[in-house]
Write a structure and sequence with these properties.
Helix 2 runs antiparallel to helix 3. The longest helix has 12 residues. This protein folds into two domains: 42 residues, no CATH class; 32 residues, no CATH class. It is 58% helix and 0% strand. The chain is elongated. The protein contains six helices and no strands. By secondary structure, it is mainly alpha-helical.
């Protein structure tokens, strides 16, 4: 089995930026499916950013109960930890 080669992130980003833009009619998700092996670090970010949540409910509404529970326990949670939890909940 060949050894896996790791390309530094800045080199991967430089190579991606030098790519020509896809035509407006082309699907970005299809492009990333075809090219994820060339830009694995950026493909992971693109997958998260281009994904559409499978719900008709706003994300804020989904986390209302969790937000309320967190706020009820806010005295027991360090402020930095509360910020981290809220950041993660908003960016899932």
């Amino acid at each position: 089995m060949p050894a896996v080669q790791f390309v530094p992130a800045h080199e991967e980003l430089d190579a991606y930026i030098s790519e020509p833009c896809i035509p407006p009619a082309e699907c970005p998700l299809s492009w990333w499916t075809d090219n994820r092996h060339r830009y694995p670090l950026i493909a992971d970010v693109a997958r998260r950013l281009l994904s559409v949540p499978a719900t008709a409910v706003s994300s804020r509404r989904l986390y209302t109960k969790e937000f309320e529970e967190l706020m009820d326990k806010r005295n027991a949670v360090a402020p930095q930890k509360a910020k981290e939890v809220m950041f993660i909940m908003e960016n899932l």
